[in-house]
Structure formats: C-alpha cells, structure tokens
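TA notes. Do not distribute before section.
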Amino acid sequence: MVDMFKDEDTEQFFQLVHMFQRSALLHMGMIPDQEGNMMFNLGEAKAGIDLLRMLQSKTSGNLTDQEERMLKGIVSELQLQFLKAPTRQRNIESDAAQSETIREAFANPKSGPVEDLSPSEESEE
C-alpha cells in the first residue's frame, strides 16, 4: 500500500483519512471493537464522515486525481453505509434478542418458551 503514495505526506494524509474511516465504520457497527463487540453511535459516525467531507473540501485542488478519487470513494461509501446503519442495528439487536431467548430456553427449560408439537385431539380421530 505504501507504493501507491507518492510521498510521506500523502501517506500520512491517508493514514488520517483511514483513522476517521475506521472510526465511522466502528460506530456504524461494521467492524467490531477491540473486544469483538459491535457498537452503534451514529452521532460519532456522522462526525467522522463530516470531518472527512471537510478534509475533502479543504484539500480540493491540492490532491492528485487518484488521491481525490480515493477520498471521494471513501466518503461516498461511508455515506451509503451510514444510511444502512439503522437497519443493520435493528437486525443485530433482533438477532441478539433471539439468541438470548434460545439460550434462556436451554438454560431454564421449565421457564423458557414452549412450542407444543403434540398432535391435537381433533387430529387423532
């Protein structure tokens, strides 16, 4: 990846971009934190995206075409994922709740949810 940058300043600039990108992805539940947990803080995600948009604006005309395309692509992808984040959060929370219900059913079978699979009296006739 180092070979794609023309100089050390460009490399450091994209390290900064990558830092904001990872922060936004983390807060949109797209990558796990250090403990493997998914987190959702859309305010923090938006702040990271906004900072990248500000960098994009402030560096306009000072980047090569390739650098501008890379930065534009990163910002565009983050904005798209930001729109999808609430649905992703609901799905993850729903899956976690369902997993907890199943776990509870196995841990405490008497108090867990029950589905009666025995034949009904009507079908025995």
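Switch to the second chain here.
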Amino acid sequence: MLTLKDSQALAERFRQEGAYRSSPDTVRRWRGFAGIRYYTRLMAIYMASARIARQGKYTLEQYTLASHRILQLVESLGGEVDVQGLANLAGPGPAVIISNHMSSLETGMLPGLILPFRDVGFVIKTSLLTYPIFGEIMRSVKNIAVSRTHPREDLRQVLEQGTQLLKQGVNVAIFPQATRSVEFDAGGFNSLGVKLAARAGVPVIPLVLKTNFQENGTRLKDFGRIDPREATRYYFGAPLAVEGTGRSTQEQVVAHILKHLREWQIPIKSGEVKP
C-alpha cells in the first residue's frame, strides 16, 4: 500500500509535470472479482482515514494520502488513470473548480489531484456528513454542505461559505449537476459556481472527468459495477475570469466539458446551456 513518503513523491510529480498518466508498470490486469476487491480495499482506506479523523489528526497530508491510495487501487485492478492540465491549478490565488459529476469515484480521487497545489473544499450533500465512516472524514475537512431540497438556502450557504473559504486561499470545487450521471445534460448544469467566483472575485477552472470505471449502482448508487476497461480521465482547463453576467464564462465551462466528453464518446443529453 502507498506510504506517506510515496504520496509526497506523487504530489511533487504532479507539481513538476503538470500531468499524470498510468504507466504499464502500475496497471495490473485483474480478470475477475474486480468489484469485491475494489470495495473491500476502498472501505479499508476509508476506515483507516476515519480512525485518524476520530483522533483529530486528519491532516491535509493524510487526506492526500487516502486519495492517492484510491488512485493506486484503480490502477491495481487494471484501470488506467490519465490526468491533464494540473498546471492550471498552480495559479497565484484560489479558484472555483467547476466539474461534471459522473460517479462517487471522483469524490475520492479529486482531493489527491488538487491538494498538492492548494487546500480545497467541496460542495457536498448534507447527508454525506451522516454516512458511517465516510461522514467522519467529511466532517474533518473543509466542505460546504447543502440540502438540495431548499435551493434559496443552498445558494446563500454556497455564496457565503464559499466566499469565506476563497478569501482564506482555499479552492472550492462544485458539481453543478443535480445528480451523478454518465450522461451529460448542459441544461441541468447550473451556474452556481460562476456566481460564487463572481462574488469572490476569483477565476473559475473548468474540469471535465470520466469516472465510469466505477459505475453508479441501481439500488445503492455508491456501489455499482467496476469496469477496469474504462480509463479514468481528468482534464483541468485554463482559468477563466468571470465578466459581466457570467453567461459567457458558463458557456466556456460547458464547452470545455462537452468537447472532451465527445472525444471520450460519453453520451450527451443536451449541449444547450440553460438561459
């Protein structure tokens, strides 16, 4: 299993190279029982993190290490990982990272990609804070919890708490989709991230990802089929300044996402930005 020293070396590699791609030496091919292996080892990673969190010792280094272990886990089961545009995270100040949301895999992997450059807080569902094991971790790091049932209150919380985090130099990552889905719908992709960036006076960084290595489950959404044939991809775009109403910036974020999803042959429900 990846050690803290290994994780620190990987973080330095991200900073130096600005990208990451699995090498043939790290990707192993498992032909059977990938799901059992994946979820068993994933729970072990989360349980170890929760134990540290209960002790009040869950540092950014521990947060990064757990995330890097998930990346290593994906590779150990035959999943290739390709990350581009990490250099765009190395700006002089914080930004709002706006991304599509495909599965719960990115929830585990993204901290390890962003934290080598700057602390990050995610906009998450309030219910995640009450999850066994995982909730203990989420309560130990900087996140903004929203109900998704009271839009006005959610908007107020994201704008107020998000602005506060950004003023402290912390990136804020947001998934504007209503729910996790492989299929992308630009019409349901809200502009909350752009609104937050405009209020705080910071740029936005568009992120497009493909994480259907871990599919969404039918009965339990967090426990879907594992498909090692599906490469896991992340592409961080260049920072975008928010001007005027932010409409143009929202269109540029969506354009970045659509361009790469089409290249990766991911289904598009709608490419039209909501007025």
